[in-house]
Specification:
2 copies of one chain form a homodimer. The first copy, chain A, is an alpha/beta fold and 470 residues long. Chain A has 3 domains: 1-39; 42-264 and 302-387 and 433-468, Alkaline Phosphatase, subunit A, CATH 3.40.720; 277-299 and 388-431, no CATH class. The first copy, chain A, is 29% helix and 19% strand. In chain A, the strands form 5 sheets. A 10-stranded mixed sheet of chain A has the order 7-8-6-5-13-1-14-18-2-19, with helices on both faces. Chain A has a 3-stranded antiparallel sheet with strand order 15-17-16, covered by helices on one side. A two-stranded antiparallel sheet of chain A has the order 3-4. In chain A, β7, α9 and β8 (251-255) form a beta-alpha-beta unit. Chain A is globular.
């Protein structure tokens, strides 16, 4: 359906005023546009940058747009700050101060704070909590989940499954040496693993990675989880070509990688942050000797991503499928997952590229919302992350002593010719910690006057629910 | 002058409506209130939390109000994000990505980005840049600077002095082993040190610490900088008692400490963040051995602050002095300086107490603005800082390997009974680095619809200038 954009309509109106005439939307474009503007379908597009805190955004902006440049995010008209709430598993009335994606996602999908690692279930009492996706489906709306992670990863999972432990992603992963979800086994009357629950779900569009969680046989059965999805009406997509060409009014499950999708960018020759190398003399006293900081590097396209669909291509297809011939509206969650994963891995270029993917997806969503004014676009993060934007050489370099991060750092050459330092130093094992700062929330015109400047993460559920009239 | 508050006025109006009568502000309170509301004096109160980024705010909120609590900041109706811009001294058209308080303060005081360490002067070309305090004075407005640091420290200095190097704070400090400001020496035709410039300034109220910078003799003279301030019309205050009792229509210089003011809070028994202590076995391989994390601690009142005026007491007095019998308006900068200084020093309780001081001062400023509706209240930070809110024990503690920060950390027992981890790991010398994330900006009702959701730090100068009609 051809729909003139609001801005085109405004331009036309301005022209008409200039010509001394008046023009009503109805007379110019017929009833369908008038109906669209006065009583449009209500949609929510919730875009989550996993781990996308103010450091990640500033690091990405400096690289992608320059110090004085602007991301699409920066021009959104509503900007709030979101408290990330996490409770103790043992004592659910006590707060702890750093979340994971499972509990923070559950806050957004259900409006209830829970404990780390839980997927839409209550802390300690382990009760299932109805999600906004489930509510939307009940009310006749379409629903979608898009992620650059495995679709069974915590953020997509919290919207359409319920399980004690986020890593119980497939029938094979329900009981391992390090964790288990015994009460969620079908044999014990549970709903089975996350992939089994998604396969049997009513979600209309599920796009991401994670094929490895759908190839095992269902618990106690002889056919795969993927077969059960097909039996439940899902058309399965596996390639960019599949994604580009699919036309269906039925349910679609796109699994474009075995695990998570490859990132758009990587460090030069695959480099990540590195440990500064102080001289031996520096081990005698901190004021002595010198230090070799990591060599500066650029970011480059990740060759592993050649066959990977972009977040934008998955999201635009999802929006297309969900909005076509749908006058009841939809709820769509879109996640750029590896801003977080690449921060865990101390790979600043990886995170920058994934924030770029998010930002171009936000631009698409905003254009759709302009054409479909009943659409609320929310962009937020689930929690903050380890990466810090630091001086590329110390602020104290004038002292002529070796000064360096005790963790790992990268020095990135930005396209505008600057040198940007990124520090990772929350621990020294194979993956960095999350952090606990409040995170940003951005929204489009539809939210003006409706979102306070500081909210709890659970309020995001309520804002979406209210917008959709659920 | 007795002025009914707006809320009192609203209550009275509601009562009158309930009684079936109408009441105009003019008939109820006479011409002065009507004039106040329809054409009030334009004031700007710019409150700067030095180093007050989203981590610092969340850490302070968790301690002071609890995870679900709210600071006064959180209820302000306008919330923006501010890009902190810093240019290279050698190549002023090139950006670097981490600021200090001198250049970031200069952005706010002059509307121009400069290089690190510069006080209201241009990078490389070293030209003085007119400040908003100087412009306001020229237009007949009153002006004030309040800080918990030495009044010669970078943030207050950038509003009323011009010098190449922030550490040239007194005649004695103009030429040292590590830095010098030769072109700013009076002997070379310059304006002299920062304290000399403040002593000769037209600022109406200057409150803070830094007496040590006023006791040396002026350059080439036989009398002290303090004497030159007195000769320039300043009444000098030195104690809490002086502050409480001063009544004057003239200029006031309050110097309540030799150096910076003592902080409100400190760690238990003076403790700051500490290095985790891994066992010897852990040095063999990162998966082996164990680690002793720092013992949990509370924050406590700092006994050194007993005779120190609070930021609130200095600020409320400054507002009182600047607003009394003043129908032209004022510009007042208030800084909580040691949020930053205590983050450099790895003292989370110190930063928490100084953010508490800022928040109670914000509450006072908002009440004043409610009573004086021409008042714009802006609250922001100059740059972000090293402290990170991290898990109090690792997210990976289930692995049963020793996981710990490579830097320093504190584990703080919050009044609500939680345990909060704070990490400092940008370097291993005596002071942490600044960081480069965008910082928050909050504003009161007077700014609704006037501040975009993402601005440059230099825009703060323009917003204040426009509000004051300069």
């Amino acid at each position: 359906m051809l729909r003139p954009t609001l801005s085109a309509l405004r331009s036309l109106t301005v022209m008409c005023i200039a010509l001394g005439t008046t023009l009503s939307p109805v007379s110019a474009f017929g009833e369908s546009l008038a109906a669209n503007i006065t009583s449009p379908a209500k949609n929510v597009i919730l875009i989550i940058g996993d781990g996308m805190d103010d450091h990640q955004i500033t690091i990405a902006r400096n690289y992608l747009k320059g110090a004085t440049g602007r991301l699409t995010l920066d021009d959104m008209p509503v900007r709030s700050s979101v408290a990330v709430l996490t409770v103790s598993e043992q004592a659910p009335d006590e707060y702890i101060y750093v979340a994971d994606s499972a509990c923070s996602g559950t806050s957004m999908s259900t409006g209830q704070a829970t404990s780390r690692s839980r997927i839409a279930t209550t802390a300690k009492s382990d009760l299932d909590i109805e999600t906004i996706v489930e509510m939307a489906h009940k009310s006749g709306l379409k629903t979608g989940l898009v992620s650059t992670s495995s679709v069974t990863d915590a953020t997509p999972a919290v919207f359409a499954s319920h399980i004690q432990y986020r890593f119980c992603e497939s029938p094979e992963k329900m009981v391992t040496e390090r964790f288990s979800c015994p009460q969620d086994l079908k044999a014990n009357g549970g709903p089975g693993s996350i992939s089994e629950q998604l396969a049997l779900s009513n979600v209309d569009v599920i796009f991401g990675g994670g094929m490895e969680n759908f190839t095992p046989n269902v618990e106690g059965g002889t056919t795969s989880v993927l077969d059960s999805a097909i039996a439940n009406g899902f058309t399965v997509l596996q390639t960019k070509q599949d994604l580009n060409t699919v036309i269906t009014t039925g349910k679609v499950l796109g699994l474009f990688a075995d695990k998570h999708l490859a990132t758009k960018l990587r460090g030069e020759n695959g480099r990540i942050a590195e440990k500064p190398e102080p001289s031996l003399l520096n081990s005698v006293h901190w004021t002595m000797g010198d230090v070799d900081l990591p060599e500066p590097m650029i970011c480059e396209a990740n060759p592993a991503a050649v066959d990977t669909p972009s977040l934008l291509s998955m999201s635009s297809k999802a929006i297309d499928l969900l909005s076509t011939d749908n006058d009841k509206g939809f709820f769509l969650m879109i996640e750029s997952a590896s801003i977080d994963k690449q921060s865990h891995a101390r790979n600043p270029c990886g995170s920058i590229g994934e924030l770029d993917q998010l930002d171009e997806t936000v631009a698409y969503a905003l254009t759709f919302a302009e054409q479909n004014p009943g659409t609320l676009v929310l962009v937020t993060a689930d929690h903050s992350q380890a990466a810090q934007l630091v001086p590329e050489s110390s602020m104290f370099s004038g002292l002529n002593i070796p000064v360096y991060s005790p963790g790992s750092m990268a020095r990135i050459i930005t396209p505008e010719g600057g040198l940007m330092g990124v520090n990772y130093a929350t621990n020294d094992i194979f993956a960095e910690e999350h952090t606990g700062a409040a995170v940003p929330l951005y929204a489009n015109d539809a939210a003006i006057g409706k979102i306070d400047t500081y909210i709890n993460q659970t309020d995001i559920f309520n804002i979406a629910k209210q917008h959709l009239g659920l």
